[in-house]
Amino acid sequence: MGSFYDSVPVSAIVRIRDMMYSVKDPFRLDQGDVSFDAPETFKQAVAKAMADNRTHYLPTTGIPPLRKAFAEKMRTKNHIPVGSDDEVMVTNGGTHGLYAVFHALLDPGDEVIVPEPEWPPTMAIVQTAGGRGVQVPLREELGWRWNIDEVERAITPKTKVLYLNSPNNPSGGILTRPELERLAQIARDRNLWVVSDEAYEDVIFNGEHISIASLPGMYERTIPVYTMSKTYAVTGVRVGYFAMKDAKLRERALKIILYTTSNVSSIAQYGAVGALEGSQQCIADFRTELKYRRDMFYTGLQEAAPGVFSGTPPDGAFYAFVKINAEWAKNAGITGDSLSWAMAEYLIKHGRIGCVPGLDFGPSCEGYIRFCTCRSREELTGALASMKETLSRVPAR
Ligand code: PMP
């Protein structure tokens, strides 16, 4: 197993994060880390848990009040028919949730249908679980959604799981109800599991968020995976969760959580209870501000780099996944084996602007680049000004 990990890639997001630490005064548009402060309800509950000496070992799958609160949230907000609180498991963020879920589901050689583009750790986690991710392109001309005929064609006898990520990181594409209904029908007909990664359920500007597990008969074959990271601006605190109806899978997942973490941090879990019990106003406030930042960034990009990047503002999530004008880059001498890497390295080195090359999100995303628009207005403004200055210095050839 040790040497197997030599074949597992490190996500470019992490490689770039490490690169950014050596950049002086960087604009951190590389990682999806919202600039907001966590709600007071979260912070106060963490402080109280510490003052109350809640610093000891906990049940592996989470403290009862938190599992209860998550079960209730999934029933009322996501309309998922979660039965008992035992079906809910608390994880170290969504990453750990996906790790536990794929490790519980997959046997060697099993295939998982994954969107392309997709947040890179998903493919790597599937790989660490012995599976193989099979990427099916999201079509930019369809608003970064699947042509579902292509999904059907990618299913083989080895396909075990359909992984959905709506809204999608990095494209912001959102699956509609008719599309989810068709995917649900395919899952039932082909006897597939569905892993539904709903990390951005609260970051939707156009359209609505629908959990596929809420569709008739789907919860039994769907594992919805959530994180508090984005919704409550607590990316570093690490609280995620999923719901699993199947008792056998749950036994496996419990062991995976036990042997990877024993239990999620006690104070993080009490903080999460505080956030869920308190006002949810921050979610709407964050969304309003994120929409403003999205629009500000897209407008600013036209001014800072006219003709260099193209793309329309996404319906959800908080990234600008834009196409690089290859002709412009060639004329500017920004070239290399990978256009998206050459552009990303150029912007980081000369403009201090963090960004992630499209290639990392799937081979067909070469030529695109991702900027994160959830940073503060000041940081976005600074990045755009730096981009304007940097690109205006590029010698035309
Ligand atoms: N799923 C997707 C699609 C994501 O973009 C992320 C974070 N960027 C996660 C899951 C996991 O987030 P975390 O581990 O911070 O909860």
Q: What attributes does this structure have?
A:
2 domains; 13 helices; Aspartate Aminotransferase, domain 2; 4-stranded antiparallel beta sheet
Quick rundown:
By secondary structure, the protein is an alpha/beta fold.
General description of the model:
This protein has 397 residues and is of the alpha/beta class. The protein has 2 domains: 3-31 and 282-392, Aspartate Aminotransferase, domain 1 (Alpha-Beta Complex), CATH 3.90.1150.10; 42-277, Aspartate Aminotransferase, domain 2 (3-Layer(aba) Sandwich), CATH 3.40.640. It has 13 helices and 12 strands. It has an 8-stranded mixed β-sheet with strand order 1-8-7-6-5-2-3-4, sandwiched between helices. A 4-stranded antiparallel β-sheet has the order 9-10-12-11. The chain is globular. The chain binds 4'-deoxy-4'-aminopyridoxal-5'-phosphate. 4'-deoxy-4'-aminopyridoxal-5'-phosphate (PMP) is lined by residues 32, 93-95, 119, 165, 169, 197, 199, 227, 229, 235, 240.
